[in-house]
Amino acid sequence: MKNLKQNNKMKNTITAIIVLTVLVLTNVSFSQVTGTINAKATVLSPISVTSTSDLNFGTSILPGVAVTIDKTSANAGQFNLTGQATKQISVTMTLPSNLTSNGNTLPISFTSTDGGWKTPAGSWNAFNPAVTTTATFASEGTMIVSLGGKVTPSHTQASGNYTSTASISLYYTGN
Questions:
Q1: Where are the domains positioned within the chain?
Q2: What is the model's pTM?
Q3: Domain 48-172, what fold?
Q4: pLDDT digit string (tens) for 78-91?
């Protein structure tokens, strides 16, 4: 019986050593390491637009005589924009095909260079106002978008004050 007790004691000791070894090795081999990161986001300044002048063909249009306004003219339509400095935006214009007065229409048209944009210190960049384009804000976060065009009254054009609207839609491109 003494041998049996010694055998059991030795088995228990060996089992305890094995269990302790496994536990120690498990903690060393599979110890957990953690790390952290920060989640960050920078929201851009919203784009704002101010209509500063209408596209004005004047008050003395003669029947049968077309009038053209250049995008750089004082009579061009103009929008002042502010947004995030040096960021690119998409510019889309919705243009009329006619001006109207008391049910009468006066055709208006736009060429592929009647749109323009520039930074305050820059020069004009021509674009087709009927096609979406991109433009980039100045380092101050400002820009001017301008619109010229042409009205073509018929020889029998009815007199009146003709109007319509042109609008601009803007969003950041991510560039």
A1: 48-172
A2: 0.77
A3: Immunoglobulin-like (2.60.40)
A4: 999 999 999 999 99
